[in-house]
Amino acid sequence: FLRRAGGRQLGHVLASSGPVLYLCVTCGCFISQCYNVFSHLPNPYASRVHCWIGTAHLVASVLSFIKLISVDPGAVTSANVELFQRVWPYDGFLYKEERGSEGCQTCKIVKPARSKHCSTCGHCVARYDHHCFWT
């Protein structure tokens, strides 16, 4: 249901174990903090404010992560390929433009420098070097 409702983006997130692992570790650490730290507050060295700071940190982390996995990773399409080519041009040293190349064999578009086709997402991603397991 969630894969159909969220489209390809949410399906990609649910298909990889990185996001699930991140959320499990984050929530596990917070539960451990609740049992091992919050029960000892307040004390002479720390006030009850520390409980709220820990909770606010967890909420901010989870909300940031949800934002991260829900935004477009920089998918290169035929509509925006020229924009990506202007923003990240070939430098001729590390990234060389291949003359006569058709570009991406799967997407059938010209690939800008630093882009690569992602088999998980199903499209070319600009600056693929920052396309991450956790997202």
Radius of gyration: 21 Å
Q: Note poorly predicted spans.
A: none
Shape call: elongated
Number of domains as seen in the coordinates? 2
Largest sheet: 3 strands, antiparallel
Along the chain, the helix and strand elements come as: HHHEHEE
- The helix content is 40-55%
Look at the structure and give the mean pLDDT: 80
Catalytic activity: L-cysteinyl-[protein] + hexadecanoyl-CoA = S-hexadecanoyl-L-cysteinyl-[protein] + CoA
InterPro entries: Palmitoyltrfase_DHHC (IPR001594), PFA4/ZDH16/20/ERF2-like (IPR039859)
Protein name: Palmitoyltransferase
Family: Belongs to the DHHC palmitoyltransferase family.
Task: Describe, in short, the structure shown.
With 135 residues, the chain is mainly alpha-helical.
Features:
mainly alpha, 46% helix, 2 domains, Palmitoyltransferase, membrane, PFA4/ZDH16/20/ERF2-like, Palmitoyltrfase_DHHC, elongated, 135 residues, three-stranded antiparallel β-sheet, EC 2.3.1.225
Kindly describe this structure:
This protein has two domains: 2-70; 73-135, no CATH class. The chain is elongated and about 70 Å long. With 135 residues, the chain is mostly helical. The two termini are 20 Å apart. Helix 2 runs antiparallel to helix 3. The mean pLDDT is 80. The chain is built from four helices and three strands; from the N terminus they run H-H-H-E-H-E-E. A hairpin with a 4-residue loop joins strand 2 (116-118) and strand 3. The chain has a three-stranded antiparallel beta sheet with strand order 1-3-2, with no helix packed on it.
